[in-house]
Specification:
about 750 residues, mainly beta, Nuclear Transport Factor 2, Chain: A, Beta-galactosidase, Chain A, domain 5, 3 domains, 26-stranded antiparallel sheet, 5-stranded antiparallel sheet, about 15% helix, TPQ, copper, oxidoreductase, transmembrane helix
Length: about 750
């Protein structure tokens, strides 16, 4: 053996180790972190001006409460522990100034309108109990309050119309557990193994059949995760109309298809063996089939979105800038997300876009289900806006904002990270063309849009509210429904009202209707409403007169009155309806914005119904009316508990007034019919449950404004499309090869419950 061989082998091994080490080090080297770059943002609107629409701060809310406590001359009890016979502050929100005041400030150089609050108070401790609304101002140091109730509603608001406070729900729950259930101990223990903690209650609304009623069916479920799909067959009708809690009573009881006078009669019938008992298997605390815990272990990570050079939008206070867009945003405690002063390329296209109401009408052969018509605004869509989970509810790197509100308490609360804003690459082109005829080229633009989102969890349902801003000047309002389906106990002819989704669970049929207010200002405040559509006409071919051609032609009509502009829910509506400006584009057409609705709504409640006027906005897929300060909303929070004498009846807005060259508002209703099915277990998915509307430029510009986007891609067959200066996509290995900075995951959704 050659004596030098061991040394050669050692040197060779050292070289190999060195090479492998270099490879491992280079492979493990991290890419540079993504850094924000300065971006071109058009100057559209002002942060300081947008504050005229801003939600109240915690400090302002506290000042309003202190002022009311010291200046009304009555004792105010904290609403979180108030009894019906107490006086309390139910809610405080910003009082948005009149449109004329705001436009004079924004456009006319006028003074900033005084900042004011709207306070809703319950006066139960006085000879004439009622609900009163006060405007309090100026903030931050209020010195006056005005009672606007009669001016706003045409009269006082009777006390029975008040939305239920959280404290009243707690008091009714305590009444059921300590008074009602105490009358049927044997039945509850032997049939449900009731131990005082294993039952949950869900309320229904409205509360009765006529004005003044406050009788609520409470549906009983197993108190487990996802209890909404665990009915046990028992429902209790509680009369809680008296302001004296000691006078509350059980009016009726329902169990497994049979009605009883009260719990005493139910207990007696059970003891005598006159009840058909349907034992429900006791569910574990996690709910078993209703648990949302994943049934599969985590695997490869799902795709994530990031911004290689940082966000291309800015958020300052309540003002957002994104490319050619600017707008202000806010969160109404009752109706949720709303936008103001929406501008594109510096020109206002809408003054206000806001959610008005979310209605659901249920069917069932159980009393609670068949009598339910939820009007979620009365519960508080904004109040129930829930904290968002990074990476699921919104992209992980979205901008997250807190929401402050004051409702059902005299202390403001914060919903952390309850609103998110992000730019989203939708994974498809906004426009494109590949040319293989004559010249050879490719031109396209990625469909990247800005999304403003909140999610409200109102009882069993979660509503995902989006406003989306596209580069071609279009705005989309969209809502996606998820959460748990509400259910009834399956018995008798239950399958007439839904599908069986578990052993004793009937997924009950329901309709969902969402109403929006869209105050478009196209080329100015004064607009007209125009309808374009098509019709086939028969003609002879000019070059061959013996031949007939059927050709589509354009039809045009100006809709002169509110009656002409009110389109019933299932009626045929012109496919192009647009707000027309008094100005024209380069080609001689009236500049406009088109309203395009996406909806597959169920049927509306028959107009013969005694409560239909309270939800008469849902008669129409679209209704355009003159804008009036005295018609700020399509409904009222007081309609839920007295729909038989509605505080606001939208049908009264439509009175055949002329709408030509006027300040107009579009009231849009989108909805869907939901027949729950087995795939709604454990809960409902958003796929297929999305409705809303688009506002699209229609001859508003001389050409598509997105052609000026910095994201455009164009190259020809004769160009070097691998060169960065020709094709920005060729630069991605350089410009996008960075690692995003993911902040640590946090969640505050279980605080301040």
């Amino acid at each position: 053996m050659n004596p030098r061989l061991p040394y050669v082998l050692l040197v060779g091994a050292a070289v190999i180790i060195f090479i492998l080490s270099c490879m491992l080090l280079s492979r493990g080297r991290r890419s540079p972190s993504c850094e924000s770059q300065p971006h071109i943002v058009e100057k559209t609107g002002s942060k300081s001006q947008s504050l005229v629409f801003a939600d109240l701060t915690p400090e302002e809310l506290a000042q309003v409460v202190r002022y009311l406590q010291g200046n009304l001359g009555v004792q105010l009890v904290d609403a979180s522990r108030a009894k019906p016979s107490d006086n309390c502050i139910a809610s405080v929100d910003v009082q948005v100034p009149t449109k004329a005041e705001v436009l004079q400030f924004l456009d006319g150089g006028g003074a900033r309108p005084p900042r004011e609050a709207l306070a809703v108070l319950y006066f139960g401790n006085q000879p004439d109990p009622n609900v009163t609304e006060y405007v309090v101002g100026p903030l931050p140091m209020p010195v006056y309050h005005r009672d606007i109730t009669v001016q706003k509603y045409g009269g006082k608001v009777p006390y029975h119309r008040r939305p239920m406070l959280g404290s009243e729900y707690e008091q009714v729950g305590a009444f059921i557990e300590t008074v009602a259930f105490a009358a049927a101990p044997t039945f509850l223990e032997e049939v449900f193994e009731y131990d005082g903690t294993n039952m949950a209650f869900q309320t229904t609304a409205p509360h009765g059949f006529r004005s003044g009623d406050r009788k609520s069916w409470f549906i009983v479920f197993q108190n487990v995760s996802g209890f909404f799909v665990h009915p046990v067959g028992l429902e209790v009708l509680v009369d809680h109309s008296s302001l004296d809690i000691s006078r509350w009573a059980v009016s009726r009881v329902f169990y497994n298809g049979q009605y009883y006078r009260d719990m005493v009669e139910l207990e007696s019938a059970y003891m005598q063996g006159r009840i058909s008992v349907e034992k429900v298997r006791k569910a574990p605390r996690d709910g078993d089939f209703s648990s949302m815990k994943p049934r599969a272990p985590a695997s490869a990570l799902f795709p994530l979105q990031y911004e290689p050079q940082g966000p291309r939008y800015s958020v300052r206070s309540n003002h957002v800038l994104f490319q050619a867009w600017s707008f202000a945003f806010g969160m109404s405690v009752n109706t949720g997300l709303r936008l103001f002063d929406i501008r594109h390329k510096g020109e206002r296209v809408a003054y206000e876009i806001s959610v008005q109401e979310a209605l659901s009408v249920y069917g069932s052969n159980c009393p609670g289900g068949m009598s339910t018509r939820y009007m979620d605004g009365s519960f508080g869509i904004g109040r129930y806006t829930s904290p968002l989970v990074r990476g699921v509810d919104c992209p992980y790197l979205a901008t997250y904002l807190d929401v402050h509100y004051l409702a059902h308490s005299q202390v403001s609360r914060v919903s952390k990270n309850a609103l998110c804003i992000f730019e989203q690459n939708l994974g498809s082109p906004l426009r494109r063309h590949y040319s293989n005829l004559q010249s050879l080229y490719y031109g396209g633009l990625v469909n990247s849009a800005l999304v403003v989102r909140s999610i409200a969890t109102v009882g069993n349902y979660d509503y995902v509210w989006d406003f989306i801003f596209y580069q071609n000047g279009a705005i989309e309002g969209k809502v996606q429904a998820t959460g748990y389906t509400s259910s009834s106990f399956l018995h008798g002819d239950g399958l007439r009202y839904g599908n069986r989704v578990w052993e004793h669970t009937l997924g009950t049929i329901r309709t969902h209707s969402i109403n929006y207010k869209v105050d478009l200002d196209v080329g100015g405040v004064k607009n007209s409403l125009v309808a374009h559509d098509m019709a086939f006409e028969m003609t002879r071919a000019p070059w061959s007169l013996e031949q007939q051609i059927e050709r589509p032609r354009l039809t045009k009509k100006v809709l002169d009155t509110e009656d002409q502009a009110a389109f019933r829910l299932q009626s045929k509506m012109p496919r192009y309806v647009y707000f027309a400006a008094n100005s024209k584009n380069k080609w001689g057409h009236q500049r406009g914005y088109r309203i395009q609705i996406t909806s597959f709504a169920g049927d509306h409640v028959p107009e013969a119904s005694s409560m239909e006027r309270a939800i008469s906005w849902a008669r129409y897929q679209l209704a355009v009316t003159r804008r009036k300060e005295e018609e700020p909303t399509s409904t009222s929070i007081y309609n839920q508990n007295d729909p038989w004498t509605p505080t606001v009846a939208f049908a009264d807005f439509i009175n055949n007034e002329t709408i030509t060259n006027e300040d107009l508002v579009a009231w849009i209703t989108a909805g869907f019919l939901h027949i729950p099915h087995s795939e709604d277990i454990p809960n409902t998915v958003t796929v297929g449950n999305s409705v809303g509307f688009l506002l699209r430029p229609y001859n508003y510009y001389d050409l598509d404004p997105s052609i000026y986007s910095h994201d455009g891609v164009f190259f020809t067959s004769k160009q070097d499309f691998t060169a960065c200066e020709i094709n920005p996509l060729a630069c991605l290995p350089k410009t996008a090869s960075c690692l995003p900075n993911f902040p640590p995951f946090t969640y505050d959704g279980f605080q301040n419950m």
